[in-house]
Specification:
Layout lengths: L3 E2 L2 H4 L3 H8 L3 E4 L6 E11 L27 E6 L3 E8 L6 E12 L1 H8 L11 H8 L15 E5 L9 E3 L15 E3 L13
Antiparallel strand pairs: 1-7, 2-3, 2-7, 3-6, 3-9, 4-5, 5-6, 8-9
Helix pairs in contact: 3-4
The chain binds a DNA duplex through strand 4, strand 5 and helix 4.
DNA sequence: CTACCGATATTCT
DNA sequence: GAATATCGGTAGA
């Protein structure tokens, strides 16, 4: 697999505009034998001060500092005491706009993904935000990575986003969910979507 | 297949 | 103390 890396200006739009455009793009980490690729099939948009579901809602902290930086970098955070989740920082610097990568379809390095994921069924390999980071080997040391120049990149390999993507409320939130914030987009009928549990 | 529950570090009240 | 942008194991239908 190969493709053209997304340019900085591609990331410089609002998270709700960028999120559906990231569907069917290819997330890449590593080179050579440890190269892993997955096609993005599910995302969620997060905003800044006006979004009660966002980590940036109460302003900058050590954890969310990357969200307030320039677009085209990776915001990686640790949650539930054991899981890493990855976001694409977008918009203008200071707006804290970001897109959470929630699920992918494995393309390259599937054997390595199976090792990292404990030899689960194929559809469980990248079906969830923490599963996706584990499959690609993304952890806190990747927080702040420049997606345009770094070892983690997002490629356009010519597959366009869906013309009519699935859309729903965001998952796993107490605040900022519901019909007022239908900011989850996904590739309809893809077998690698995350499980949708609504607490 | 769905439902529940424990794990467990950081952030927030 | 409580909550958290989650997951994997187990129990049951």
């Amino acid at each position: 697999m190969s493709g053209r890396p997304l340019a900085r200006r591609f990331y410089a739009r609002d998270s709700r505009q960028l999120a559906p455009l990231l569907l069917n793009k290819v997330l890449v980490r590593g080179t050579g034998p440890d190269r892993v690729e997955a096609r993005i099939v599910e995302v969620e948009a997060y905003a800044g001060a006006d979004d009660p579901g966002s980590h940036a809602f109460r302003g900058p902290t050590p954890r969310n500092e990357t969200m307030f930086g320039p677009p085209g970098h990776l915001y990686v955070y640790f949650t539930y005491g054991m899981h890493w989740c990855a976001n694409v920082v977008c918009g203008q610097a200071g707006t804290a706009s970001a897109v959470l990568l929630r699920a992918g379809s494995p393309l390259v390095g599937v054997d390595l993904i199976r090792q990292r994921r404990g030899h689960r069924t194929d559809r469980e390999l990248c079906a969830g935000p923490a599963r996706l980071t584990q499959a690609l080997g993304i952890t806190g040391i990747d927080d702040g990575t420049d997606l345009v120049r770094g070892t983690i990149r997002i490629l356009d390999d010519g597959v366009p986003p869906p013309s009519r993507p699935g859309r729903s409320a965001r998952i796993g939130l107490r605040e900022g969910r519901g019909d007022q914030h239908p900011w989850r987009w996904f590739v309809r009928n893809d077998p690698n979507l995350s499980r949708t549990r609504h607490p």
